[in-house]
């Protein structure tokens, strides 16, 4: 499947400043793995050493939180979007 | 008396107020009753800074009857690029004094209650009890989790907004059926991972954009109109001027609003991993004077600046190299080699965190510069830029 992964600016700088990246994979996890394979510095920012998501970075598949769709095992279809939302606290 | 009860006894509006709010009275969705609801409304603003500025200004202008403001900070010249509640003549004044003066000028009918204190687990529930809506205009993770938990436990909606550089988030948490902040982010990031506005910078107008969204949501809640952001997360991207709305649901495992196992406020500094950093547990510190002496006697020192690139560009200590905190762990093999490692940042917190990372990685003879660049400026070299 070919999908788009959207990164906020703070993570995009670890991906050559690309805010939107094409990615291939059958699940959210595989698509993120594809991106991390090209930009290894993103790896520790997106998941922990055991490959699990952090509690301070939320992922959306289209407009739904992946935690309600099977987490990183959530299947993706062509044209889907994965939106990466890390927490920020500025005010 | 709660908001629902007060609605049956809505305050009257004077002739001046009817004139002042005429543009609201013309709106079918507001009208006279809506304006009286606003006057009966009690809103607590936590923070009178970047987000707090448009919030205070627009809520006062709109005729919200009671505004409570929590802030213990003093106006600094670096605030004026974005904290439009305050002006040049307010530099050095408590933000609450500046806010009160400005807001009463915008609308003398507003009753303003000020809390010149840090919001804590000891005072939060008491303070929010007197309000209908709480607005999170804070700038740090511990207080955001505190505000969230207090709002869920206290039964008050929490109008959330947060910003970083050019992007922002907004939502409404802690409504009776809706999610809370912990449903979105169940844990805070490790200390130092997400720079503050003072460290990473922020486009001045961005809190204006996000804070005004929060003010809009607050008015809708008080008026009982429209669809609020409860159950939705609004992402604001000012560089591309794109807005994206994502769905938010209550997490059934959320300890505060899901399982409800968390029934009391906790130690939020500890929850955010900051207690160890602040006490510098296990971190050796060197003062600026000591570092000057070490260099004078010719010690082999690896002086490392762990701040963000923008801060490094503003000015750094001579002879330093740059390794931002977020990259320290992956740059472990560039340290050591028999040298004394001295890390510094702006104030000493991030360098203590970096020292901890290196020590846990096996490096010895690691020091954090006590007080950071701020103290170096005060004690050694006042020509370094202040920021």
Question: In a few lines, what is going on in this structure?
Answer:
The complex is a heterodimer of chains A (91) and B (387). With 91 residues, chain A is an alpha+beta fold.
- Count of β-strands of chain B: 13
Given this structure, which CATH class of the largest domain in chain B is correct? Alpha Beta
Fraction of residues of chain B in helices?
25-40%
CATH architecture of the largest domain in chain B: 3-Layer(aba) Sandwich
User: How does the helix and strand content of chain B classify structurally?
Assistant: alpha/beta
Detailed description of the structure:
The complex is a heterodimer of chains A (91) and B (387). By secondary structure, chain A is α+β, with helices and mostly antiparallel strands. Chain A is built from 3 helices and 5 strands, in the order βαβααβββ. Chain A has helices spanning 9-12, 28-38, 43-46; strands at residues 2-6, 20-24, 57-61, 64-65, 81-86. In chain A, a hairpin with a 2-residue loop joins strand 3 (57-61) and strand 4. Chain A is globular. Chain A starts with a strand and ends in a 5-residue tail after the last strand. The mean pLDDT of chain A is 96. Chain B has 2 domains: 41-276, NAD(P)-binding Rossmann-like Domain (Rossmann fold, 3-Layer(aba) Sandwich); 280-379, Oxidized Rhodanese, domain 1. Chain B is 36% helix and 16% strand. Chain B contains 18 helices and 13 strands. In chain B, 46% of the residues are buried. Chain B has 387 residues and is of the alpha/beta class. Chain B is elongated and about 75 Å long. In chain B, helix 5 runs parallel beside helix 11. The chains are: A alpha+beta (91), B alpha/beta (387). The interface between A and B is medium-sized, with 24 and 46 residues.
């Amino acid at each position: 499947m070919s999908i788009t992964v959207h990164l906020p600016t703070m993570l995009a700088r670890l991906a050559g400043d690309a805010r939107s990246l094409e990615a291939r994979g059958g699940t959210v996890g595989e698509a993120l793995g594809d991106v991390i394979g090209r930009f290894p510095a993103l790896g520790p920012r997106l998941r922990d050493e055991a490959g699990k998501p952090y509690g301070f970075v939320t992922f959306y598949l289209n407009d739904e939180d992946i935690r309600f769709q099977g987490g990183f095992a959530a299947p993706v279809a062509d044209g889907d979007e994965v939106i990466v939302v890390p927490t920020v606290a500025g005010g | 008396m709660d908001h629902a009860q007060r609605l049956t006894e809505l305050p009257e509006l004077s002739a001046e107020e009817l004139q002042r709010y005429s543009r609201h009275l013309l709106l079918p969705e507001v009208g006279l009753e809506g304006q009286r609801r606003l006057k009966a409304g009690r809103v607590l603003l936590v923070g009178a800074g970047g987000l707090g500025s448009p919030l205070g200004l627009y809520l006062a202008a709109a005729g919200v009857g009671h505004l409570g403001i929590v802030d213990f900070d003093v106006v600094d010249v670096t605030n004026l690029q974005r904290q439009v509640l305050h002006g040049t003549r307010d530099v050095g004044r408590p933000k609450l004094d500046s806010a009160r003066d400005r807001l009463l000028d915008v609308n003398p009918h507003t009753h303003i209650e000020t809390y010149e204190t840090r919001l804590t687990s000891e005072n939060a529930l008491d303070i929010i009890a007197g309000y209908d809506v709480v607005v999170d205009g804070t700038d740090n993770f511990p207080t955001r989790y505190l505000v969230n938990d207090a709002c869920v436990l206290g039964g008050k909606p929490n109008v959330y907004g947060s910003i970083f550089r050019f992007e922002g988030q907004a939502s409404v948490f802690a409504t009776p059926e809706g999610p809370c902040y912990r449903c979105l982010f169940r844990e805070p990031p490790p200390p130092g991972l997400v720079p503050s506005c003072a460290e990473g910078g922020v486009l001045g107008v961005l809190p204006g954009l996000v804070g005004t969204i929060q003010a809009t949501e607050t008015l809708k809640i008080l008026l009982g109109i429209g669809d609020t952001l409860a159950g939705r997360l609004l992402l604001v991207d000012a560089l591309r001027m794109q807005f994206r709305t994502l769905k938010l649901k209550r997490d059934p495992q959320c300890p505060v609003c899901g399982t409800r196992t968390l029934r009391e406020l906790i130690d939020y500094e500890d929850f955010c991993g900051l207690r160890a950093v602040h006490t510098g547990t296990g971190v050796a510190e060197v003062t600026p004077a000591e570092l000057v002496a070490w260099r004078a006697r010719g010690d082999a020192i690896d002086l490392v600046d762990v701040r963000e690139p923008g801060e490094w560009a503003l000015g750094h200590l001579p002879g330093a190299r740059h390794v931002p905190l977020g990259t320290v762990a992956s740059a472990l093999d560039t340290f050591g080699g028999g040298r004394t490692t001295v890390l510094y940042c702006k104030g000493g917190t991030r360098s203590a965190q970096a020292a901890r990372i290196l020590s846990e990685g096996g490096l010895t003879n690691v020091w954090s510069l006590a007080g950071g660049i701020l103290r170096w400026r005060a004690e050694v070299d006042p020509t370094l830029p202040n920021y």
